[in-house]
């Protein structure tokens, strides 16, 4: 293979991979210098001239002429007078010999190895470029085509045919994908595994919801409205705190849109995830009150030092504050970054409910006291919460909670 053919083939391959000319020249020179070092042990006294567009390659070896009996005759950059005069008869001691080395002089095997090395270097560079490109795009939203649906992940392709991965854990539980469809997701993280970039997408990240709002609400994109915080139970419920820098703009109204036109498209994309848009305020108590919407709070005590807030509500507002499966209070706690404890502000309970004190013959008093400490003083207020929520909010063990739930359920069977 001639040098011209080798360089032309490599240049064409590099252009297909969108490798710029300076980088292409650098790769070529690195490979040729490696060949030189293998044959001559050093490349210090060699010059390489490459014209990739014409496919030209020149390799020049420079050596100083010394006397045939000189002690330096074996140095890599020296040549004996007799050897130099075989190249040019009128050479003299002290002059420099510039000798062109042909690619063919390295041997057929070395040239084929160089060809494979060039291709591999471009592929490695292509992977590095892809890694850096997507690393800089982390947090951005992308629309990609689905080309394979697997059990643990969905494989997608971007516009350039690069593989993107949407793991099962980053999918909304109600997501259903088919090959050939397109889907939106946010670039969650990028990692290099055995030299190959893995681009991980997410549809459950709060950032994904932020990007959807930016796409649907021009005031957010133009930074007239800022999203202060987003918390989600993917596919179920989300709370978004927004603030406007322009007094003439209602941030909640702008995000919802006329008759819900803006938020409806976001809800559909998130598989009917229920989204509460809340006005952010530096007034902590007011922000907590808005976060627990639709429940109406009677009173509260904020203990920022311990990261807790005690909220007092009318009996008919407790279930609203807690929400189905404890979703509302859980998201509100994350939104305001405080642990919220709910208490009833009156002693009366509805006719169908039963006070926990009535079960003191079946449930130990210290367990009842622990439940009351977190605002749970009736049977229904305990049953409305899941076992996981009770574990999170109380100091009770799992077995104790299961026994309490069993006793209370029997009351209403």
TrEMBL record:
- A GO biological process this protein is involved in? DNA-templated transcription termination
Span-the-membrane segments of this chain are: none
**InterPro entries cross-referenced by the UniProt entry:** KH_dom, KH_dom-like_a/b, KH_NusA_2nd, KH_sf_prok-type, NA-bd_OB-fold, NusA_N_sf, TF_NusA, TF_NusA_bacterial
Record-linked Pfam families: KH_NusA_1st, KH_NusA_2nd, NusA_N
User: Where's the K Homology domain?
Assistant: 234-296, 305-372
Where's it mainly located?
cytoplasm
Name its cellular compartments. Cytoplasm
Alphabetical list of SUPFAM superfamilies matching this protein: Nucleic acid-binding proteins (SSF50249), Prokaryotic type KH domain (KH-domain type II) (SSF54814), Transcription factor NusA, N-terminal domain (SSF69705)
Give me the Gene Ontology terms describing cellular component. Answer: cytosol
Q: Which UniProt keywords apply?
A: Cytoplasm, RNA-binding, Transcription, Transcription antitermination, Transcription regulation, Transcription termination
Coiled coil start-end: none
GO MF term list: DNA-binding transcription factor activity; RNA binding
How is the subunit organization of this protein annotated in UniProt? Monomer. Binds directly to the core enzyme of the DNA-dependent RNA polymerase and to nascent RNA.
Describe the family membership recorded for this protein in Swiss-Prot or TrEMBL: Belongs to the NusA family.
Function per UniProt? Participates in both transcription termination and antitermination.
Please name the HAMAP family in this protein's record: NusA_B
Name the record gives this protein: Transcription termination/antitermination protein NusA
Q: Species name for this entry?
A: Cesiribacter andamanensis AMV16
The lineage, from the top, is: Bacteria, Pseudomonadati, Bacteroidota, Cytophagia, Cytophagales
This chain is encoded by the gene named nusA
């Amino acid at each position: 293979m001639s040098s011209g053919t080798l360089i032309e083939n490599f240049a064409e391959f590099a252009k297909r991979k969108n490798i710029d000319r300076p980088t292409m020249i650098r790769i070529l020179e690195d490979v040729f210098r490696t060949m030189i070092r293998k044959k001559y042990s050093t490349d210090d006294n060699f010059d390489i001239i490459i014209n990739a567009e014409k496919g030209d390659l020149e390799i020049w070896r420079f050596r100083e002429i010394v006397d045939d009996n000189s002690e330096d005759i074996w140095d890599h950059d020296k040549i004996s007078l007799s050897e130099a005069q075989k190249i040019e008869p009128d050479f003299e001691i002290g002059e420099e010999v510039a000798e062109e080395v042909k690619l063919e002089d390295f041997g057929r095997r070395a040239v084929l190895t160089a060809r494979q090395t060039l291709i591999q270097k471009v592929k490695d560079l292509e992977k590095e470029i892809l890694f850096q490109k997507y690393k800089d795009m982390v947090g951005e939203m992308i629309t990609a085509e689905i080309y394979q649906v697997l059990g643990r992940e969905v494989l997608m392709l971007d516009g350039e045919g690069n593989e993107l991965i949407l793991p099962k854990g980053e999918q909304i539980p109600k997501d259903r994908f088919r090959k050939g469809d397109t889907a939106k997701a946010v670039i969650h993280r990028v990692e290099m595994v055995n030299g190959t970039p893995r681009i991980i997408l997410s549809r459950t990240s709060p950032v994904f919801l932020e990007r959807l709002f930016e796409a649907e609400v021009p005031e957010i994109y133009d930074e007239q409205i800022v999203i202060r915080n987003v918390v989600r139970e993917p596919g179920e419920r989300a709370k978004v705190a927004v603030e406007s820098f322009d007094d003439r703009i209602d941030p909640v109204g702008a995000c919802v849109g006329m008759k819900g036109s803006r938020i409806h498209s976001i809800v559909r994309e998130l598989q009917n995830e229920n989204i509460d848009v809340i006005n952010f305020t530096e007034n902590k108590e007011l922000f907590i009150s808005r976060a627990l919407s639709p429940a109406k709070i009677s009173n509260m005590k904020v203990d920022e030092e311990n990261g807790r807030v005690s909220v007092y509500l009318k009996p008919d507002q407790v279930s609203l504050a807690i929400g189905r499966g404890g979703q509302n209070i859980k998201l509100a706690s994350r939104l305001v970054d405080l642990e919220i404890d709910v208490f009833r502000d009156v002693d009366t309970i509805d006719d169908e409910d039963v006070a926990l004190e009535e079960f003191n013959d079946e449930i130990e008093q210290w367990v009842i006291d622990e439940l009351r400490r977190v605002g749970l003083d009736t049977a229904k207020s305990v049953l409305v919460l899941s076992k996981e929520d009770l574990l999170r909010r109380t100091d009770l063990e799992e077995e104790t909670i299961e026994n309490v739930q069993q006793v209370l359920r029997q009351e209403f069977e």
